[in-house]
């Protein structure tokens, strides 16, 4: 049986993984959702200095404090950035890294690099206007839908996502990832691709070519960008298969 550390994407907390974690536990696994500093129940711990290094330290500290071994570290969306950093620091505690509708970051990258300049500027303006200069409120679904599939999220699920989302410390988007970023050579590497991401991979986008070949293993999931909300049991099934 596997030990999963489940790291949520932007604006989310451990709550987003509850249904998937439950399904993994029913299969006999240990599933440990993690809330990062400044988000959800840890909102009051965030501040202008909360950045990508903070979230990397959250992940590595959680694994080390709990003396976890043979860890399967799972990243959703934004969490690809801190999980990449943590994977390069966890050494032999890490057995597997899984990127859900995301991919590992290269050293020197930041979240804003993944979007067009106009979209990045729009986020900066939002932070300045309604985030006290350091917090990024969750944008509208219309804005999110420009780059991330909303497939599978019904009106009730969108309402829950909107109600429970908390502003993202913007330093986590602007700080560039520093090394080490490579996990050990024996670490299993897994990609779970949802709707829009499967199209990018199948189109052979050059910057993603490496995750379409060994040692990477790819699983496709027919839902949108938030599978832990739109298809939690199916996601748990894929995560279970990945460790079997």
UniProtKB/TrEMBL annotation:
InterPro entries: AB_hydrolase_1 (IPR000073), AB_hydrolase_fold (IPR029058), Sec-Metab_Biosynth_Hydrolase (IPR052897). Pfam families: Abhydrolase_6. Residues 5-236 form the AB hydrolase-1 domain. GO terms for molecular function: catalytic activity. Transmembrane segments: none annotated. This is AB hydrolase-1 domain-containing protein. The lineage of its organism: Bacteria, Bacillati, Actinomycetota, Actinomycetes, Kitasatosporales.
């Amino acid at each position: 049986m596997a030990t999963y550390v489940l790291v949520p994407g932007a604006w989310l907390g451990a709550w987003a993984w509850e249904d998937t974690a439950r399904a993994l536990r029913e299969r006999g696994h240990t599933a440990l959702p993690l809330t990062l500093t400044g988000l959800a129940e840890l909102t009051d711990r965030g501040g202008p200095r909360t950045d990508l290094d903070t979230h990397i330290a959250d992940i590595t500290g959680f694994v080390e404090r709990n003396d976890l071994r043979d860890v399967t570290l799972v990243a959703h969306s934004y969490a690809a950035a801190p999980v990449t950093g943590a994977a390069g620091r966890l050494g032999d505690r890490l057995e597997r890294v899984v990127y859900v509708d995301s991919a590992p970051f290269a050293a020197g990258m930041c979240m804003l690099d993944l979007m067009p300049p106009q979209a990045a500027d729009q986020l900066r303006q939002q932070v300045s206007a309604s985030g006290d200069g350091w917090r990024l409120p969750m944008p509208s679904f219309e804005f999110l839908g420009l780059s991330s599939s909303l497939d599978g999220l019904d009106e009730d699920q969108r309402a829950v996502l909107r109600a429970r989302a908390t502003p993202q410390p913007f330093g986590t988007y602007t700080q560039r990832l520093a090394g080490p970023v490579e996990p050990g050579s024996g670490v299993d590497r897994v990609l779970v691709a949802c709707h829009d991401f499967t199209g990018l991979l199948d189109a052979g986008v050059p910057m993603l070519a490496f995750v379409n070949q060994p040692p990477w293993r790819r699983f496709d999931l027919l839902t949108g960008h938030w599978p832990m909300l739109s298809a939690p049991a199916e996601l748990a099934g894929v995560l279970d298969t990945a460790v079997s």
